[in-house]
Design goal:
This protein is mostly beta strands. It is 13% helix and 38% strand. The strands form 4 sheets. A 5-stranded antiparallel β-sheet has the order 3-2-1-4-5, with no helix packed on it. Strands 8-7-6-9-10 form a 5-stranded antiparallel β-sheet, with no helix packed on it. α1 (213-229) packs across α3 (253-265).
Length: 282
């Protein structure tokens, strides 16, 4: 059975002047319009297509891939607003509707064109794809299927006094504490993260740097990013105060020395009397 709102691998039953009829199983035959049928396709060939309902409620297929699928969280731009809600650009011809009833109360009167909003992609009561801003309805605070050190995907969601609340693997809430943030983050940004600790209450503490040897490589990239944003120079040396290093990079002096040594050996930076300078790529 073809599933709505996600990519499906469906085989071609036959080709018609209107397009390719795909085997949707219990869903029935699904039309892929001729304009989207890859050249040279034959009956029996399997295509990866996105399946959804069109404006008339018919199930159709598309070879276009949206920015997000059902069950995922995404940061999407508002392209229009009317009495029905906000319409979000998501890489498909028909924009995704965020109905007013699915918008967090504090956001309802502030949404406007050009603004970005964090939403979950869901099916509405009629089986059509829509967006919801009620993330707590779809994301859990507790998770038991992770191990310490597991690599995960995180999306920056909210900034709090103790750190950054993130969406983990589109399924759970997690927290990156301020002590683990060493570079600028933006809402909606997607990054690699690692499970830092397994808490007794099953809530997730997330680190943005990899454990072990990979940690230095991850921190090194963060230092390079900061250098780029600061015009290629940072007034930090091995004689700088730990507080100054932490304020600029969010890392300890010991880790700073290890990271700078690695970057210097790989000829990514130059060490000068007054600080470190980014070396332009050849």
């Amino acid at each position: 059975m073809a599933e709505l709102g996600i990519l499906n691998a469906l085989s071609i039953l036959r080709l018609t002047p209107e397009g390719a009829l795909l085997d949707g199983g219990a869903t029935g035959e699904i039309l892929l319009p001729m304009a989207q049928v890859p050249k040279g396709c034959v009956a029996g060939q399997v295509l990866n297509v996105f399946v959804a309902k069109d404006g008339e409620g018919q199930v159709v297929a598309s070879t276009r891939q949206p920015l997000c699928q059902r069950g995922q969280v995404a940061c999407l731009k508002v392209v229009a607003v009317n009495k029905s809600g906000a319409f979000l650009g998501w890489g498909m011809p028909k924009d995704l509707l965020l109905p007013w009833k699915e918008v967090k109360h504090e956001q309802r009167h502030r949404l406007k064109e050009g603004q970005k909003v964090l939403v979950a992609v869901v099916l509405d009561d009629q089986g059509r794809l829509a967006a919801s801003g009620r993330l707590d309805d779809f994301l859990g605070d507790e998770a038991q299927d992770y191990r310490e050190g597991d690599k995960v995907s995180v999306m920056v969601a909210e900034f709090t006094e103790i750190g950054v609340r993130v969406v983990v693997n589109h399924r759970h809430w997690g927290m990156v504490h301020n002590s683990d943030v060493f570079s600028e983050l933006t809402r909606g940004e997607v990054r690699d993260g690692w499970i830092k600790a397994l808490r007794a209450d099953h809530k997730l503490n997330i680190a943005l740097t990899a454990p072990g040897y990979a940690k230095i490589d991850s921190i090194a990239q963060g230092v390079l990013d900061v250098l780029k944003r600061r015009g290629g120079f940072l007034p930090l040396t091995d004689k700088s105060q730990p507080e100054a290093i932490y304020e600029s990079l969010g890392i300890s002096k010991k880790v700073f020395k290890q990271t700078i040594g690695s970057l210097y050996k790989s000829r990514r930076i130059a060490i000068e009397p007054e600080g470190i300078r980014l070396i332009a790529a050849p």
